[in-house]
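Worked example 3 (structure in, sequence out).
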């Protein structure tokens, strides 16, 4: 990392620790002019110390201390990242901040993979700098055409020139277009950035769109990796970034929706621990029941993500594990086609939209029908229902006579 780049990192937003400053100062006081900092504080130590202080506490004197320059020059390759936010709740940022393997401080100041680390130059939520200094850091980084990764969070308003979502004195969509055409690649984090998501839900009064849609309209050929989810899982983001750092963009194999296959290749339904109930037609009739949640609106049969095996909250649980149907938050048509969330897929139209009924769903539909029939037969419910109907009919006739 060059000194210039490091200064940008600092003034652009981030991470120097008082502890480090104090240790350097103490070294000086011990009259050790050589200040064997590199022997004593490794770059990794430095980064760890630095991570302890998200609020930047840089003093100019730190830069002038003996040994400091050497410390910084002992570098690994840095990958500059600009992270912009548009129409979003910042939930994906918050989710990524909760990363556990590795922790977020390791992601943004340590080496994500040996010899390479992410240099987060601009992030509106976590950076300490604000106003002109923050925007200057972003613009300086963006001058290096093809030399940075753009992360976009949130959907981008396009109606009336995008005036309904602005930062740094101009519409967010303009920033996206300018930054996007110079970026090495763009990661659209969260369903809003990937596909429009909630801000683009009907009637979409501000004309929100996802990143790829906007790039296509503006002839921007920069590759886009979509990491959807509402919010996205921290592993999906960190894992994708690590893949890019290790093997380059080409190492990230994506599906037809631009989602990394490593995380989105399979259907929730195919990995769901409640699948055995679905297969025999045993469906929950209220959320607290431990059976298949299909009848209560579960969109697992048409949703691609590895939630059942990866789990959330540091591997503790996930939506269906908490007795809530999957609402299909990683799919391109979320949330319009998945709504109402508590009505089964066949009645919300999501099945047809995903060619589920005609394609995969034909099998699933048949299986469901078979499952329901089996279930009814097994439990004798069909007989009970028939008897109930006959009893009602008899009651009605009695009333008439
Ligand atoms: S419908 Fe939902 S709850 Fe039922 S098996 Fe499929 S994913 Fe699991
Ligand atoms: S289980 Fe479904 S709704 Fe829940 S996070 Fe995974 S994809 Fe989204």
């Amino acid at each position: 990392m060059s000194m210039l780049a490091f200064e940008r990192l600092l003034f652009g937003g981030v991470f120097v620790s008082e502890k480090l400053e104090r240790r350097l100062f103490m070294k000086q006081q011990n009259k050790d002019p050589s200040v064997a900092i590199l022997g004593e504080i490794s770059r990794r130590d430095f980064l760890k110390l630095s991570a302890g202080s998200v609020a930047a506490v840089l003093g100019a004197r730190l830069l002038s201390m003996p040994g400091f320059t050497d410390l910084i020059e002992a570098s690994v390759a840095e990958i500059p990242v600009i992270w912009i936010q548009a129409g979003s709740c910042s939930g994906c940022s918050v989710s990524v901040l909760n990363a556990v393997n590795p922790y977020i401080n390791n992601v943004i100041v340590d080496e994500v993979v040996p010899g390479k680390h992410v240099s987060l130059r601009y992030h509106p939520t976590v950076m300490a700098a604000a106003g002109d200094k923050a925007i200057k850091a972003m613009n300086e980084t963006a001058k290096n055409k093809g030399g940075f990764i753009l992360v976009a969070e949130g959907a981008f308003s396009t109606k009336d020139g995008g005036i309904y979502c602005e930062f740094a004195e101009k519409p967010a969509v303009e920033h996206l277009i300018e930054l996007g055409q110079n970026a090495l690649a763009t990661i659209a984090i969260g369903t809003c950035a990937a596909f429009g998501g909630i801000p683009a839900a009907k009637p979409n009064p501000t004309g929100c769109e996802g990143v790829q849609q906007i790039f296509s309209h503006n002839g921007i050929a920069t590759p886009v990796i979509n990491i959807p989810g509402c919010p996205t899982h921290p592993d999906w983001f960190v894992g994708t970034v690590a893949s890019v750092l290790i093997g380059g963009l080409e190492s990230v194999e994506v599906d037809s929706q631009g989602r990394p296959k490593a995380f989105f290749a399979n259907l929730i339904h195919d990995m769901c621990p409640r699948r055995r109930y679905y297969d025999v037609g045993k469906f929950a009739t209220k959320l607290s029941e431990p059976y298949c949640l299909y009848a209560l609106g579960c969109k697992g049969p048409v949703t691609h993500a590895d939630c059942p095996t990866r789990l959330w909250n540091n591997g503790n649980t996930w939506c269906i594990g908490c007795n809530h149907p999957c609402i299909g938050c990683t799919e391109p048509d979320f949330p319009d086609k998945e709504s109402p969330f508590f009505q089964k897929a066949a009645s919300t139209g999501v099945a047809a939209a995903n060619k589920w009924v005609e394609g995969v769903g034909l099998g699933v539909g048949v299986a469901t029908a078979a499952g329901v029939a089996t279930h009814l037969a097994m439990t004798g419910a069909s007989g009970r229902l028939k008897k109930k109907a006959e009893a009602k009919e008899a009651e009605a006739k009695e009333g008439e006579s």
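Notes: The chain has a mean pLDDT of 77. The first helix runs from residue 3 to 11.
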